[in-house]
Amino acid sequence: MELIQFDTPVEKLYSVGQTVAKRLKNLGLKHAKDILYHFPSRYEDFSNITTIDKLTSGIRVTIKGKIDAIQNRRSFRRRLYITEAIVSDQTGSVKIIWFNQPYLAKTFVPGDKIVVSGKLEMDKYGLHFTSPSYEKLSGPQIHTGRLVPVYPTTSRLTQRQLRFLTQLSKPLARRTVDYLPYQLKKEVDLLELPLALQEIHFPRNEAWLKKAVERLKFDELFPIQIYTLQNRRLLEHTPAPAIPFNQEKTKRFVEALPYKLTNAQRRSAWEILKDMEQRRPMNRLLEGDVGSGKTVVVSLAILNAADRGWQSVMLAPTEILAQQHFETFTKLFQKQKITVCLLTRTQKWISRPKKAVSKTTLNHKIANGNAQLVIGTQAILQEHVVFKNLGLAIVDEQHRFGVDQRKQLTNKSRAHSELSPHFLSLTATPIPRTLALGFYGDLDISIIDELPKGRQKIATKIVLPHERKATYDFISEEIQSGRQVFVICPLIDPSDKLGVKSVREEYERLSTKIFPEFKIGLLHGRLRPESREKVMREFLANHIQLLVSTSVVEVGIDIPNATVMLIEAAERFGLAQLHQFRGRVGRGLYQSYCFLLTETESEAGRNRLQAVLTSQNGFELAEKDLEMRGPGELYGLKQSGFPEFRIAKLTDFPIIKKAQTLAKNILEQDFELSKYPHIRQKMKEFKDSIHWE
Ligand code: ADP
Ligand code: MG
Fold first, then answer.
1. Which end of the chain is less congested by CB atoms within 10 angstroms, N or C?
2. Is pLDDT of 369 > 80?
3. How much distance in Å is there from the Cα of 291 to the middle of ligand 2?
4. Using a 6 Å cutoff on CB, does residue 290 contact ligand 1?
């Protein structure tokens, strides 16, 4: 047999046939290495080893003994195979019963030495083990007599198979190179990686398990810390245009607005404008609930850039959003005579005078500096666009912007290609401070934590199954009086990442059974971007009255005519995410409603939803999500652009702290990591795994 390698395909592994290989692949396990990194979700504690005379009903134990007898029979009532065995040691004997595993009577013959782990029961059969875990005493013990790993799996791949395979991949654990030098590990008291990889699967005891878990969590958190620290330092040494704050002009602009800025808006604007005065690039995240007024804050930054002859660019995640921003800024900057442009794959517009233009005309205006603000999609990065002098880059609803994208933009600035533009990222996702410190260490953060006065409250209600019909009646009335409705469906199954099936079913049901008289649309992440745009456009134009969607609808689109947000299986979403869905309605003049449908029997699940009723504050809800470590936390990480964790949690603060400390120490003495080739390699892999959208 060949030596197992990290990249050995699973189908080449000993005992793995085509069927098992396929099932492994369904779990995302393609190579031997993937099996090594498929960590247990929990453990059965079978470490209590005892003798047969000590057995009593209800305890969970392990015994070692000899098989005296073993045989199959059929239960006549239920068509079950029952395998019965008698096992004895020096102190006595005990009965074992297995259901529907008739092959066991062939696997074992009387005289075989066996280890049995499980729970004891007392009933009409007497005292016995029921379907315990078992294995021959001669081999390594992986199913019994220890902390036994239980893996995340699909129904058709058994724990025994998975344990067997992890046992098989154990040599890989031993051969894994630890990227952390011994001395550094000692400093922060971390277990060695090869050991951690063995102990995570087959821990000696709880204490070893804890150390293994800590080490493997550390490995996911550490690269983030190195990354953000390096990024921050690099930016500190990157030149940027210093854009002085024109107080007079800004004041006049603000005074002409039809409303007064909130204190939070003032503070955030001040922080941004102060940053832009520096000779190094701003790298700031502006967080604010839906409707908190981020746009006008951004406009102050653009105004000041334009004042000094610097162009601004604003990237939006979708064409429709770009278009909405274009309309908003065109109005906002009418008096200032700032020329706004729209550039997407399908649309090219300028604001003064407002008209559609050719690609050539638009590119020309961007190149000669006449276009002072260019709003668009990623098309701006792709197409042949060159700025005269780009001073400010804004990204809407995308939390991170890669160094590469930044470079791409910088290179687009003809006159000042050595200067990096200031960078501002906007988000309505409330990221709690605690989280931000660990995961956005390279970004400064401004928070608009206050809504403008006089906002209408969105009436929010938990809807139980028996109230569904009444809710549909209500929706029907709303649509008849001209309004529009969102219906959000969650993932049906965590492994079905996009949940397409569930929204499709709901779409079918609503359009054929519940609301056949209305025009209903369907939106989900597996649609191509063009089709998604098309659906949103039809909804915006009120050609679709009810839109069934997955959570892709989150991103800040403005549909003032939509008044009802109905969320199916609301308990499956994070509280902050529910709050974001709710923010999709109530953007016009009409009273709006949010219905949280839930069929959960769990009291705790329903109580959790109550928080969305009592709080209208996204940050509060995000903190609650974090406390409860619910599904919200996955959501938060996804937004950061970093790869999802296998084992670490966003709330692993002590380990995050450890990772931060070590990263700082290392970078202080060796910023380039030239003395640490293995850490460098690790960082390279990490950077490749970051996704920026
Ligand atoms: P978001 O933060 O979600 O992007 P917007 O910038 O789109 O929010 O602002 C939402 C609405 O609130 C806009 O119509 C805007 O004109 C208005 N607005 C912004 N700031 C204020 C304020 N201080 N007082 C009243 N209305 C405001
Ligand atoms: Mg917005």
1. N
2. yes
3. 7
4. yes
